[in-house]
Write a structure and sequence with these properties.
The structure is a single chain. It is built from two helices and two strands. With 107 residues, the chain is mainly alpha-helical. It has one domain. It has a two-stranded antiparallel sheet with strand order 1-2. The longest helix has 59 residues.
Length: 107
Amino acid sequence: MNGKAKFAAALRVLAAPAVLVLAALVLALAVGNLSDGSTAEGRDRLEDAVRRGAVTCYASEGIYPPTLEYLEEHYGVQVDESRYTVFYDAFAENLMPDITVVENEGA
């Protein structure tokens, strides 16, 4: 066996594990990106639900809800407090509250 043939054989032996490692790395990155996307989607859905609840309250009662707890008690809005923090700032009864949802670290 000449030098070129030995090199080609060694390259084939090393290529298979390298391809497997590369495939595992790509899979890990894809799963990480998928998880980040679902987290952002969940946060957006919660923020939309809080806004819809506030608008529903305004339509039925003529005022925006004074607190997030009021929305939870009277309009069925549910917040997973272990996963998200909702900042709900109602500064006037006739103005849409400022609503911000953030994901808790480690959630």
